Amino acid sequence: MRLLYVSRTSGxxxxxFTDAWRSSGLEVEAMTLGPEASPNAFLDxxxxxxxxxxxxxxxxxxxxxxxxxxxxPMIASSWAFDLLLEAKQSAELRDAAVExxxxxxxxFVDSGAVRDRALELGADPGGVICFPWGVSxxxxxxxxxxxGENGRFVFLSTRRHEPIYRVDDAISAFGGVAHEITGAExxxxxxxxxxxxxxxxxxxxxxxxxxxxxGEQSGANLRKLYQEADVYVSCSxxxxxxxxxxxxxxxxxLPVVSDIPGNREWVGDDTGFRYLVGDVDELRSRMLASFRLxxxxxxxxxxxxxxxxxxxxxxxxxxxxxxxxxxxxMSRHEAA
Length: 336
Description:
By secondary structure, this protein is an alpha/beta fold. The protein has helices at 12-23, 39-49, 63-69, 81-84, 91-103, 112-120, 167-180, 195-204, 219-228, 243-251, 261-264, 280-292, 295-312, 315-335; strands spanning 2-7, 27-32, 53-57, 74-77, 106-109, 128-130, 153-157, 184-189, 211-215, 231-234, 254-258, 273-275. The protein is globular, with a radius of gyration of 21 Å.
């Protein structure tokens, strides 16, 4: 069985999917198609590889290209922002998403919020399969340790430096937090088109001695960052099930996140803090509240967060279900 994996990107989450399919015994090829890609690149790869099934995402692009030029079994994968954000930006993108969802034999979504949006756009409920992309067993080896008393309190951001993630809000809120918490630090991982803007913001706010830009991190280095941080901060305006949120919860970094539907599925009063998107004052208040938690209460909250991820977002368990989802796609296509 051969699967062609088509995506707009070639990042870590794409790699996790292709590795999972290969571990299921499939022969897999991956290709990247940007929004302006020509159909010929896809058609040439199909002719050379002769796949039995194609998985494509995001749905808004390159989903329409694949849907228009592939007549075999197709799995559409939503990356959350495609349906929750891009498909609302124009009638053209919405119509394209509707057509891809109609064409797909199976649609993968990573949260209830994205599932609801897919159904709203006309996806067949019988073909929508919802599961969080999850974290690997390496992140779930043991319950998180209590954070030590070392005179330092670390807030950590690991989101891309792009407008939808609003890392600038974390910096603005931290400016106030730093005045109230001696030893507070903000670590900013990742990179993006706004990195230089964020660095300038830190300098203007006079907090350069309290903020560290640690760059792109992955694997063991990224896990170590989460383990050393006290609080994970995400200001995103849109997410399904955020992998970085799950990684934080799996390693004991207490979440302070934007109050959006995807985050509500994981962060409640017993597992972290939420704040209104864009409300920097409320974000600052939640960051201060996370610092003021008694140690015992904080540890109990971190343990509940860890248990939730272990029970509901184990990627290794999900990968064992992929062959079943593939069979669903094949059978639904045959029956169509």
